[in-house]
Amino acid sequence: MKQFTSFFAAIFLAIWSLLGSSGVAQQKESDDKTLSPYFFVKSDNPELDQLPLKSTSAVVNIAGVIADIKVTQVYKNEGKHALEAIYIFPASTRAAVYAMKMIVGERIINAKIKTRDEARQEYEQAKQQGKSASLLEQQRPNVFQMNVANIMPGDEIRVEMSYTELLVPTDKEYELVYPTVVGPRYSNQPTATAPASEHWVQNPYLHQGEAPTYTFGITVNIEAGMPLQKITSPSHKVDIHYTGNTHAAVTLDKSESSGGNRDYILKYRLAGDQIENGLLLSQGDKENFFLLMLQPPKRVALEQIPGREYIFIVDVSGSMFGFPLDISKKLLKDLIGNLRPTDRFNVVLFAGGSTVMSNDSVPATTDNINMAMTIIDQQRGGGGTELLPALNRALKLPRPENFSRTIVIATDGFVTVEEEVFDLIRNNLGNANMFAFGIGTSVNRHIIEGMAHVGMGEPFVIARPEEALAKAEAFRKLIQSPVLTQVKIDFDGFDVYDVEPRTIPDVLADRPVIVFGKWRGRPQGKITLQGISGRELYNTEIDVANVKPQKSNSSLQYLWARHRIMLLSDYNLLRSDDKRIKEVTDLGLAYNLLTTYTSFVAIDSEVRNKDGKTATVNQPLPLPEGVSDYAVGGVGYAASPTAKKTKSARHVSMGEEPAPVAEAMLQDKIATNYNVIQLIVTEVTATGVLTKDGLLRVIQPQMKSLSSCIHALQPGAKIKIKISIDATGTVRIVEIVSNEIKDQSVLQCLIRLAGRWTFDSNPVKKDTVAVITLQAGS
Prior knowledge:
Blueprint: H1 2-19, E1 38-39, E2 53-63, E3 66-76, E4 83-90, E5 96-104, E6 107-110, E7 112-115, H2 116-129, E8 131-140, E9 143-151, E10 156-166, E11 173-178, E12 204-205, E13 215-223, E14 228-232, E15 238-242, E16 247-252, E17 264-270, E18 278-283, E19 288-294, E20 308-315, H3 323-337, E21 344-350, E22 354-356, E23 362-363, H4 366-377, H5 387-396, E24 404-411, H6 418-426, E25 433-439, H7 445-454, E26 459-462, H8 468-479, E27 485-492, E28 496-500, E29 513-519, E30 526-533, E31 536-543, H9 556-574, H10 578-590, E32 598-607, E33 615-618, H11 660-673, E34 679-687, H12 692-699, H13 703-707, E35 718-725, E36 731-736, H14 744-754, E37 768-776
Parallel strand pairs: 1-12, 2-13, 4-33, 20-21, 20-24, 24-25, 25-26
Antiparallel strand pairs: 2-3, 3-10, 4-9, 5-6, 5-10, 7-32, 8-9, 8-32, 11-17, 13-16, 14-17, 15-16, 18-19, 19-29, 21-22, 21-23, 27-30, 28-29, 30-31, 34-37, 35-36, 35-37
């Protein structure tokens, strides 16, 4: 029997090798295959250039607080057939991409901004006609996709992309971050039903430690307007050349030509720890734009800071049961336990409803802190997730006079009222500082980050218990000494509109106040900023008439539009709305900006590929430095410990199932190398809408699949898996409760497979948390 099983194992490995032997050939999709990154395997076809991207480089010009970046990608076809290259690459989330052009030989083709569908249609048509073409699409606010079609043998095609972003100093230090590589993204969406906009996730990666297959370069030119000092790069080796005390050129060391596997970071300060301060004006044919950046006052001594009030809003709903709520308790114990005696605080708990610890905030005495800890410790998690009423209730609590109010929300974000929450925060910036802590291994990052955007604050995500104290310390450092509270800005005689932000929250760190918008008429009048610094009134003003509009400030239009698009996109990612989609699309077309709904397309007029046939190559990416092969997969279905890895065998990635033909043989292969272990369900407990029977109907048929993950468990041993299921039947969080498994590859395999289960949706829009106990048989 063992020889018989070994024979089938050998057949499986042969079939598996054939299934994954090509990095560029189109593979037959099975119905249950999900979107997944995979490891690149070089084809044996010598006539096909699989690595068309030869270099990527950037030139960054910084003038004051505005950075203008030109990215150049060079594609070359060293094979014998026409190619289409697809390259996934990142950019800053603040990037406003405003131009693109393609250079083919001596011809320069400037790209045009189109709606996403129009641009894609024009590109595909040009590709079929045999014309060289390039298409730039936004897949995420910080993930872009470049398609270049009809790269002929021997061709070198350059594509240049231009974007701008605002550099905002923190603690008087400026930081430029240039992302270089998109890390692998896990997805459990079936390939067959996933929208085309999500297919970029299926991208090949090199193995850990392998250098990029293309060269990387970046040059930064700084024209600060003030004396420079302390230029450093913590990420790369650089050479710094000063051309005056206010100018510097920073180039990459020659040893860093393969440094495109980690973000490039450059930091600098201005002499005397000054920051760029003042008003920038831009005057256009149709609209005028302004940017106001004012340095706040210096930090004051702790004893001079006025009273502070903290309201902690804690999610104790069903989806927070167990691990997330345990982290929340740890976080709150640290935050509340370290309040000053002169501070006041309150606690609001919410699930299907909400309760408040006290009708008025209480002093942070030992007794009151202990009372809060007791209330929080009693929570076990259960019920729905009604964040909006809880936030409303917190804002309506009586506010102590002359106290700075900060609201801290701890949640996994599994709610369905994101728009209303965003609106409430945005309309109350002058009344409270808002901070969101995302708690859990798979939080709704859109709402956590969105609350930070509209609240002009920082998002905090805690995925592991050991992160709680560090994140709490970072939060404390940020808020411990507000430099300016009760902030107001007045435009006297300066006709402004479409101003962002609408109101200004407390300035909690040593970073400037930034306001931008549009203006009409003549640049005149005064802008006044005032607030409370320590216990004194702070006031500063700018005479607008002394500032002249400059052509060099033309990028202000892009920065304003990008900010507006970011806010609309935060709303729309959470709940799509046709009016918002139209507004984002119109902004992209009006201001020539890349967005989720607008793309750049450049098409050469010359037909160069007569038969129109091309081979499509997905440019393989390096794994980010420090990231292991486990990020791509090869965990649950990796070769046996005794099997040798070959270049022709492709790892199965996270979220990807083996082909149905091979799965039975896979079980034989596992049986050959390990003891056969069958998992059975012994107990299911559930909190929420779904019944035990409804859960078992889905879980029982999955035991064979889960059993394939196990190879080192004693018969009779038990495993507990906790899953959180949202109202649509989608599994949001998977947690291994048992401590009997130490092998991380086994844990990742179990989590990966359980995360794909789909349950019945429920009309009452409530979540379900289930704990499944599994027992190993023989």
